[in-house]
Each structure stands twice: as C-alpha cells, then as structure tokens.
Amino acid sequence: MNTIVAEFAATPFNTAAPLWQPGEDDTFECVQVRDETHDVKTFVFKAVPARQFRYLPGQFITLELEIDGEITNRCYTLSSTPTRPDCVSITVKRVPGGKVSNWLHDNLKPGSRVSVLGPAGEFSFALYPQRPYLFLSGGSGITPLMSMSRALTDLAQPTDIVFVHSSRSPSDIIFRHEVVLLARQHPGFRQVQVCQGTAGEPEWSGLTGYLDRAALERSVPDFKERTVFCCGPGPYMAGVRKLLEESGFDMAHYHEESFNFGELTAAAGVEPAPACEHVSCESAGFKVRFSRTGDEITVAAGQTVLAAAQASGLRLPASCSQGLCGTCKSKLVEGQVDMQHSGGIRKREIDQGMFLPCCSKPLSDLVIDR
Ligand SMILES: Cc1cc2nc3c(=O)[nH]c(=O)nc-3n(C[C@H](O)[C@H](O)[C@H](O)COP(=O)(O)OP(=O)(O)OC[C@H]3O[C@@H](n4cnc5c(N)ncnc54)[C@H](O)[C@@H]3O)c2cc1C
Ligand code: FES
Q: Which ligand 2 atom sits nearest the alpha carbon of residue 321?
C-alpha cells in the first residue's frame, strides 16, 4: 500500500468513533441539503449509528431507494473528502425524466434515511500518486475531481494540480466559488473554467466554447507531463481521449470515470459476455426459471445469469455488470451459483439468499424470484 492510500485508509483523525465498515453499516441520515446550481443539489449525510467515514477520494456509493414500491439502485460519487470524516456528501444533477435524481431532489430532506452500499471504485489519485495532476471534468462529472481536490488541498502537502472544468454556461458551474477559493488559498492548485456559452454573464473571464487542443495547450502547456483524471458525459470524455491521443499524450497516464457503466465497459474494451447462440447451450447449460414472470432460459457453461438473460431478450435491472453496484440483486429461491462479486452485496444479504446475476454462474438449475 503506498503512503497516500495508507493515509486515507487510516483516517487522519484520532477519535473514539468507530469507522465505517463497508458492507456492514448501511443507513445514512441526511443532515443537510445544499443548492449548488439551478439543477444540482448536494446531500450531506451522517452514518446511523454515528461513526467516521473512510474511503478514497473519488470513490462512489450505491443508494438503495424504495420509490413507488420498487427498490431502485443508483451510484453516486462521494463529492466529500475523507479528510473530513464525520459526514459524506453526494452531489446530484437532475436528469430530465430520470427516476432517482428527481426523486432525490424532490424528496430527500434533513432527517430522511437511506440505505447505502459501498464505497467502491478505483478512480482516485491516491492509487496514482507519482505525477502532477490534470483534472478534467464536464458538468456533474466534477464530483470525483472535487473530492480529490478537497482531499489534496486539505492535506496541505506540496501539490501541483490544474483543474479544468467545462460547463454549459456560468450558471451551470458546480462548486464555482469553492474552486476559486481553493486556487486562491493553495499555490499548487490552478483552475480553468470553460463555458460553451456565457449567456447572462457578459463579464465572463474564463474560456468560451469547447475544450480543444489549442485551448488545452494554451492553458496547460505542460499537460503531457501530468497524470490526467477525466470524468464527464460520454461525448465529452470521447473528445478528451481523442484530443490527448492526437497530441501524443501517453495514455498510460490517463484515467477516466464514466457515470454510465456501459460506456465504461466499452471504453475499457471489455468483451461482452457470449450470447447463447455462440456456445453450446444444449449440452452444457443450466435451466434458470424466473418464478414471477414464468420465463425460462438456459445459461451456457461459463456464462453469467445476467448475460444469458440479456441474450434471451429478458430485461433484468443492471448497471455495472461487474458485481460492484448492487443494481441487479435478486433472490435465489433454488439452486447454487458461483458468485465473484466486487463488493456489490453484503454478507448478510448472501446469507438471506440474495445474489448478483451479473457476476454469478450457475452450478445447478436455478429458480430466481423475479
Ligand atoms: C460510478 C457512478 C458515479 C456517479 N456519480 C454521479 C454523481 O456524482 N452525480 C450525479 O448527478 N450522477 C452520478 N451518476 C449517475 C447516476 O447514477 C444516475 O445515473 C443519474 O442520477 C440518473 O439517474 P435517474 O434515475 O435520475 O435517471 P434514469 O431514470 O436512470 O434515466 C433517465 C434517462 O436519462 C438517461 N441518463 C441516465 N443517466 C444519465 C446521465 N448521468 N446523464 C445523462 N443522461 C442520463 C438514461 O439513459 C435515461 O434515458 C453516477 C453514476 C455512476 C455509474
Ligand atoms: S449490475 Fe452492478 S452488481 Fe450487478
């Protein structure tokens, strides 16, 4: 474990409060709601019972919410910093028509309690502590970079960070005043704001338009010497990747986080799981029955339950497909599986017969409560 990871793994404050143990403590109480912009709010939580939070800056949690009688999971980055360990926060942008983001904005108030899974994720400077940093974010993709900026500046170690954030307009800039303050207070922290348009702010002093190669070379001349952390909408990140590749940037020093797990998997070049037609389902498969819908599928040897269901045209809830987020969690009524999860399910849930179809291969015929 490198020293920076160790610093966050062992909380820097020495208090009697016990530490947050992912997988055990799962109830957060909202203690504050802040308006960040016209369509972005920050929700601050404490743990119930009270304890201190420990995580890497840039990691995310999964909220499990009951909305209209249905359990719904969504991932949100912790925008807070582990250097202030008594509370955590998430910062959520309303997605037009979106189920959970709008529910949170309209319903989550101080005193509300939510069930939480996590933290998870490896998008953190703490895992790549060697070089000066270039943080690139677009829109609500600012949250992990803000967590990292808060953490690095709180530790008051010598840092060299350039933070380039892109927004639609000045009124859409999330954490605008705080980022300016960080730059004023910390000599090793510089910020650049890019806005597509400047409607409503004629005296805008940042960059206007899109982040392109010329703008990057002008505002961060030494960008090729930096480790890049990038988060934002899919087209923004595709543009950044192209720009960096074309300018000869060594992509070994590029790290990105997508708020869409599908994009993340595609960008990482992960092969989709084989569909049933390409493997011998007849000879090696196990039968899987969904008890509520009556649907029945065959899962081929080596195939996950989720991959087989999707290949058969069934729609199961899923997000990360990597056993991380808990979205696909289901009750296994009969049978046995080999589940290789990455923290998306708690031990007590497994003991209660729950499993994650996205990372489970049948060891026998199965019946699933769906
Ligand atoms: C690792 C991770 C971290 C995340 N961190 C944050 C965060 O810090 N802040 C934050 O606001 N969100 C974050 N998200 C996104 C969040 O999980 C939800 O996807 C988002 O709030 C929309 O959920 P919803 O239920 O409102 O919309 P849904 O009901 O799921 O979707 C409604 C429609 O919007 C589209 N859509 C879904 N998500 C987005 C999106 N992000 N942008 C544009 N269109 C979308 C869908 O394709 C669909 O058409 C994160 C996602 C991941 C995977
Ligand atoms: S889809 Fe994320 S754990 Fe299964």
A: 1
| Same domain flag for 114 and 27 | yes
Q: What is the mean pLDDT of the chain?
A: 87
**Which atom in ligand 1 lies closest to the alpha carbon of residue 76?**
5
Mean pLDDT of 6-29: 61
The helix or strand, by DSSP H or E, that contains position 28, with its residue range, turns out to be strand 27-37
Q: Which residues of 206-235 are buried (b: 16+ CB within 10 A; e: fewer)?
A: bbeeebeeebbeebbeebeebbbbbbbbbe
Are 255 and 144 spatial neighbours (Cβ–Cβ below 8 Å)? Answer: no
Note whether 141 and 260 are same-domain residues.
yes
Q: Which of 267, 290, 306 is the last residue of a domain?
A: 267
135 and 263 both lie in a single domain: yes
Per-residue pLDDT tens digits for 129-149:
877 999 999 999 999 999 999
Alpha-carbon gap, residue 192 to 216, rounded angstroms:
10
Residues with a CB atom less than 6 Å from ligand 1: 60, 74-77, 90-93, 95, 97-102, 140, 143, 259, 261
Tell me if 251 is assigned to some domain: yes
- The total of structural domains in the chain comes to 3
Task: Identify which has the larger pLDDT, 62 or 25.
Answer: 62
Among all ligands shown, which has an atom nearest to the Cα of 317?
2
Size (the chain), residues: 370
CB 94 within 8 A of CB 39: yes
Q: Kind and range of the H or E element at 348?
A: helix 347-351
Domain extent for 95: 3-119
| Cα of 55 from ligand 2 centre, angstroms | 20
Residue in the structure block whose two tokens are 């939580």: 45
Q: Which pTM does this prediction carry?
A: 0.84
State the DSSP string of 57-87: TT-EEEEEEEETTEEEEEEEEB-S-TTSTT-
Nearest to 310 by CA among 274, 271, 265: 274
Tokens for 188, please give them. 């090793």
CA of 212 relative to ligand 1 center, distance in Å: 26
Angle at which helices 142-154 and 176-185 pack, to 10 degrees?
Answer: 30
